[in-house]
Amino acid sequence: MPITNMNRRKALTMLGLTGAAGAIAPNLLVSPAWAARPDTPTGQIVVGVSQEPTVFNPLMPRIEVDDGVQLSVFDGLVRISPDGEFIPALAAEVPTIENGGLSEDGLTWHFKLRDDVTWHDGEPFTAEDVKFTLELIMDPNFRSWRTTGHELVRDIEVVSPTEIKWRMEEPFAPYMSILVETMMVPKHILGHLEDRNEAPFNQAPIGTGAFKWGSRKAGDHVELVANPDYFGEGPFVERLIFKYIPDLTVLYTQFKSGDIDIISNQYITPDNYAEAKTLAGKEVSVVPAPTVESVFLNNEKPQFQDSAVRQAIYAAIDKQTIIDALYYGLPTPSESYLPQQSYYYNPDLPRHEYSPETANKLLDEAGWERGADGIRAKDGVRLSFSNSTTSGNHLREQAQQFIQQSLGEVGIEMTIENKPPAVMWGEYWTQSQFDSVIVGIVFTTGADADVTVRFASDAIPAQGGRGSNTGQYQNPEVDKLLEEAGRIFDQAKRKELYGQVQEIIREDLPLLPLFQYATVRGHKEGLKGIEANINTRIDTWNAAQYYWDQ
Amino acid sequence: MTAVEIHTHKHRWWRSRGVQRFVQHRLAMIGMAMLFLLTLACIIGPYLLPYDELYIDLRARFAPPLSGDHYLGTDPLGRDIAARLLMAGRISLLVGFFAMVLSTAIGTVIGVVAGYYGGKVNSILMRFVDAFLAFPSIFLLLALAAFINPSPVMITIIIAVTSWMEIARIVEAEVKSLRERDFVMAGRMLGLRNSHIMFRELLPNMVGPIIVAATLTVARAILLEAYISFLGYGIQPPLPSWGNMLNGAQQYLATAPWLAIIPGITITIAVTSFNFIGDGLRDALDVRNDPA
Amino acid sequence: MAGFLVKRLWQSIVLLIIVSMIGFGVLHLTPGGPLSQYALTPGMTQETMDRIAEQMGLNRPLPIQYLDWAWRLLQGDWGTSYRDQQPVLTVIGRHLFATLLLMVSSTVISIGLGTWIGIRGATHRYSTFDYTATVGAMIALSIPTFWFGLVGIYVFSLKLGWLPAGNMYTIGDGSLLDYLHHLILPSVVLALVNIAIWSRYMRTATLDVINQDFVKTARAKGVGERRVLMKHVVGNALLPMITLAGMQLPNLLSGALVTETVFTWPGMGRLFLDSLGYNDYPVVMGLLMFSAILVLLGNLIADLVAASIDPRIRLA
Fold this sequence. Notes:
Chain B is mainly α. Helix content of chain B is 69%, strand content 0%.
């Protein structure tokens, strides 16, 4: 049935282009035109994941694979389409300034909720649950995932069971994207508990989603079962099983042998792509991911103070060879920290050119002279720095050594100091103790292009800031643009401002962007409804729509 | 008896029975020969090869052994494996050797002190030995490796810190058995300082067992370095070590098995040599083998 | 006997305290922490990380954290995994079976083969067999276990396709035969070193017995060679071998850890590496205490056997 599939995809794109998806249907993927779906949930799907989902309370700290399960069990007020469109989920409509849901100044938020939603235990979902959820996030005794945006919410008022409104301390446009990632939890289950950190709910969650909690065999799998009372379209399979297979090679083998139906996080390794796409009975495709790989500099280090040095290092890195030779040509070179599919992406940034000559010239002109050992120095600062990453990531370690050699050729010494993950991403990272790091980061908050926590001057933890600007980048102009863009709700205007931020950062090079990730995803032929979404962290964001072709 | 012999025959030690027994020990001699060749190769080999061990050539990735100038093939970055193997040998052998020196020193001091003083000092020190032995040694290794910058010096220290216990036990037992001997008593009566008695009088009597244990410790240290570097927490690339050459080799096992096989065989050869030599030394220095 | 037991128990407790203090200290002084897994989360801020650390009690002074942990442990509370939010004992229990399966099967292999090689080597002293066994044992002791695992996978899984390359069972199968099929390679790899140790030990033990007068007498009396050997040698040597087994326990555990990493075997070794990678302190400490107790128990049994059974006295 590849033709049906193509038609659907094409239709989807068109919907997205007209920007009307949200207005037509509550669920983007809903349309009666494709009738091959079963009337009742049929069969099961085994999703293979290489990390184990362990966190099931959606408000607690979680990693990507946890999202995979949570997005099937829970719903937020709104969700986001692959095109970056907000779509109502538990909300009846997405509040905008046009429809009056948002006040002109962006300070009052007014949500109308669906009236046909029940929790998995049969209790109705109401505005009280929304209020409870937003308050629980800010409860100082609760171990909540993150509070950005939520901390601005004041005076939550339940107008009726299907209506809720609140005031924001200051206008904050990215909040809608944050709400996309904020799943609603039931007040009637958690409300009366004293310790929500250890609640039984956290191990057997009750949500509103297309799938109900089934069972978990820790260290092995999580099983979800179809929710027949789901308010949206779907689900179309009886069981959704997340099978934990820690080794990527074994994960791939199980995919080949057909033991798993979908190979999910962290997908097929690039070196297996060539073979994977020839597999019979499997659909394998390269899907862009929001993660951007970069050589991330600690801008407070004396070696990196000189702009010429950063420009020279960038010029001396042979990006294309790294991508082609080591990553099998899969990722796309990038100049921005934003994924190229983002609405806010600025496509007009200057293109990187690999040129040791330029690097040498820049350094010579800036007065970095080669010493007796061949390493450049200026004013007593040797052009030597360490580079770290998580040990065990072989492709990245190879790229690292290749860059080391390239830099050595222009008189820059880069030493390698790799560390185990727990050490790497501990204080070494958060308190900016590194010289430089090779890392893949999703810079945005949800789908929004707001990067205040990553690049604002007051977001540097090592200097007492509250964000995660571990590169210690400071630029007053960027600060001003970010603040302005966070306060306005006009998308076109915001795109322009974020475009400028990208321009400045490309010029300053506080980090040297290498490429945007591309993942090799795969599933069995005959499994339909699978749709990539750059705005979510995991491929199974829309499992409600999955079905086996009859 | 050996103590006296070692002292009196110092000027012609090579004629002692121990040495003769060692020379006649076939395995030990094979071990010595293998180790000699390996060391020689590591010292002069790199100068004879056409490639530098750090030179990356992405066009020559994954060349199998015996292809062109790459006698042992190339790795995923197109570096010459032969050159890397020999340079890695320098690092791995040095790490193994110095880890042995350090752990022998630690073990000897603790063993001598515990054995000589006995009583409370002994219980406290030996409980520490027991405690360290009760850890799976991998735990301490990995936790410590995470603690510091994994430079070769640090890796050496870490390995030493986790492998001194055996020697401490051996030395403690020896000292205990020698403590009440005449020459120690005499030393005490002469008013010699404790440290003098411990390290000048007692220690020379235990050289045999210490040498044997030390040889086996080199073997163990090389294996430990290989394991933590294999896991990626040891010697950091681009500096090659036998262990970190194996890091990532599992991934390419199907397509480039030589990445795993070549360094592994080399490690086995090196460790076998030390075990052979250790075995020979044990036989040679065993007093029971002396004719009565 | 009772006095000895009390003394040993007391020593073991002191030892456990030292082990827990060293372990706790090393673990908590290591840079990084359990929150590091969230450091790269989009939108994560230092403020949130600090708040979570506060709630988890991670920013209290180390001695207080230790005492808190130890006090709970005394009450039977091993803590809750940071990563899994399940009780530590539950987490360990889930992985215990896999490791025990591996350890037991490899011990069976190594004792069986080791005993046979050792006795045969001793009775055919200086034969080709004996010589090969001696050299083979020393080489076996020199092969890095993890590398031997890789070679095993290369030969038997990738080239011959006889055995699976990892995991404990096939998803959707899990029959006894399937388990055994997966068990062969890792347990043989883990057994290699132990076969060497057992065979060396068995050889020495057998030689000791063969040269004793009562065996010579028995032989002179015309009792069959084989019967003498079986009765006296095995009877005499096997009991001290329990001692050896006890002493070998830490090595066996370390070996299992190494083997599990290569074969993605879902046992305690893998759990240990994973937990260490995430700084899941409660689980790592739990595993540490668990293995220390196991090792001390092994030593205790070994000592008891050694102290209570002197085969020569009984045989006389």
